[in-house]
Amino acid sequence: MRDRIQEALKRSKADYTEIRIEEKETTRVVFRGKDLEVANANIDKGGIVRSLIKNKGWGVVSFNNLDDLFTKVDQAYQCAQVGSAPEPIELASVEPVEKITTVEMKRDFRDIPLAEKKALAERYNQVVLSHSRKIVDTQAVYSDIFTHLILANSEGTYIEQEKPSVVVGTTAIARDGENVQQAHDSLATTQGYEYVLDKDELARKTAQKAVELLDAQSIKAGQYTVVADQMLAGVFIHEAFGHLSEADFVYENPKAREMMTMGRRFGKGLLNVYDDGSIPNLRGTTLYDDEGTPARRNWLIQDGELVGRLHSRQTAAKMGEKASGNARAINYRFAPIVRMTNTAIDNGATSFEVMIKDIELGVYACEAYGGQTQLENFSFSSGYAYMIRDGKIAEMVKDVILAGNLFATLENIDAIGNDFKWLNTGGGCGKGNQFPLPVGMGAPHIRIQNVVIGGE
Ligand SMILES: [Zn+2]
Fold first, then answer.
1. Which of 13, 209, 287, 379 is most deeply buried (CB count within 10 A of its CB)?
2. 60: CA distance to ligand 1 center in Å?
3. How far is the CA of 144 from the centre of ligand 1 (A)?
4. Is 352 in contact with 417 (CB distance < 8 Å)?
5. Alpha carbon of 425 to ligand 1 centroid (Å)
């Protein structure tokens, strides 16, 4: 295969050509209620050629049949020929690399029979179902993906990477008359099957949260001091800030360019934020991105100052910066675009106890049920929350929707916890039809003043 790829690259008449070949083995088991909904195994194999003619544009061809690479390379060249780039397209330089990486799993999930995976999902489903008579519906998911990726380009790069991914997740829906509440948990890893065994406690917690939410009162709308747990803080920094750091968006959007000027200051100098695809065993880890740029730690905010952003080779060249290792594609059907890897708020100095002890009336908001962002404005629903009264965690509340302006909110962060945690949750990030891309998020607890919370 390697010879054929390199031969095909040599034949290309384009200024730059890249071939990516991907093989994905997937199994997936889903239980809903008492029933098995899905149990399947699937292999998906294909490739993509990207050719660049600097004065014209990109030509992209994806395919399933790997036999005729030479024709695909010619086709990509022809597609690039019909382009009419308004300005020449340059790529930031990246040192060519030859590297073959393999992973070793303690228990390789490809060796586990589907029946055993089904039994695992069924067990977690049963834990949720049997937790309470108030649990009226459930979902339990087991899924694994083993990806083998080859990336080669006309500059001499040849990289083979193996990427395992295994996820278990549980959803519980609890009901009391008209009152219906739900909770969800998941656990994802790039390690082996052993990592998702014995997670009954995860399933039990999901069920417990859904049942407890039945008794929670809706929060009274208003402005509160909010302490966000690691998951909510991680989702916040990914959704509200991380996407604005993606240079394709910044470049194309004049408003975003103005907002994300290097050197801009946020808040009290406490905040440090980075994206890092090089940390082992995290969900967004990718040692080389889909253009062959090695992953590294890219600081986005340091001591409260905007210091960096995320790039592909093309956006880096456009903005006169360095490629950052953030060109990622969800599979061989897509060209890479600028994406996050593992995005985090760095650890701070304040303990959780100190963070809440002076709050007379506030909210401890935990987990996140998605949300929306519109440039600098966001709104997120927390999964569940507690009131903070006189420095202590008090009753559970529901329907906590946090809304605000990103920059005002960053400004209002006045304490950063010393309890940093990576969140090994499933799900993923969506952008430009490419969903769900595995990404990692991490944060300590953070405290934010004057947060507007919707509710009753
Ligand atoms: Zn995202």
1. 209
2. 24
3. 21
4. yes
5. 14
Give the pairing of strands 371-374 and 16-32. unpaired
Distance CA 385, CA 396 (A): 6
Cα of 283 vs centre of ligand 1, distance in Å, is 13
Ranges in the chain annotated CATH 3.30.2290.10? 2-215
336-339 long-range contacts, CB within 8 A, separation 24+: 336/289, 336/290, 336/291, 336/312, 337/248, 337/312, 337/431, 337/432, 337/434, 338/246, 338/247, 338/248, 338/249, 338/310, 338/311, 338/312, 339/246, 339/310, 339/429, 339/431, 339/434, 339/437, 339/439
pLDDT per position in the chain (456 positions), as tens?
Answer: 999 999 999 999 999 999 999 999 999 999 999 999 999 999 999 999 999 999 999 999 999 999 989 999 999 999 999 999 999 999 999 999 999 999 999 999 999 999 999 999 999 999 999 999 999 999 999 999 999 999 999 999 999 999 999 999 999 999 999 999 999 999 999 999 999 999 999 999 999 999 999 999 999 999 999 999 999 999 999 999 999 999 999 888 999 999 999 999 987 899 999 999 999 999 999 999 999 999 999 999 999 999 999 999 999 999 999 999 999 999 999 999 999 999 999 999 999 999 999 999 999 999 998 778 888 999 999 999 999 999 999 999 999 999 999 999 999 999 999 999 999 888 889 998 999 999 999 999 999 999 999 865
Rounded distance between C-alpha atoms, residue 184 and residue 195, angstroms: 19
Residue spans of beta strands (DSSP E) within 214-264: 217-218, 222-228
Tokens 């916890």 — which residue? 417
Rg (CA), the chain: 24
Pair 357, 331: CB distance under 8 Å: no
**Sign of the torsion formed by the C-alpha atoms of 251, 254, 260 and 264:** positive
- Is the CB of residue 369 less than 8 Å from the CB of residue 384? no
- Is the domain spanning 2-215 CATH 3.30.2290.10? The answer is yes
DSSP-assigned states of every residue in 256-282: HHHHT-TT-B-TTS---EEEETTSTT-
* Tokens matching residue 318: 């456009």
Cβ contact 380:236 at 8 Å: yes
CA of 326 to the centre of ligand 1 (A): 13
* Cα 431 to ligand 1 centroid, rounded to whole Å: 7
Ligand 1 centroid – CA 256 distance (Å): 16
> Which three-class secondary structure state does DSSP give residue 46?
strand
User: Cα–Cα distances in Å, from 150 out to 12, 96, 158, 160?
Assistant: 18, 14, 7, 5
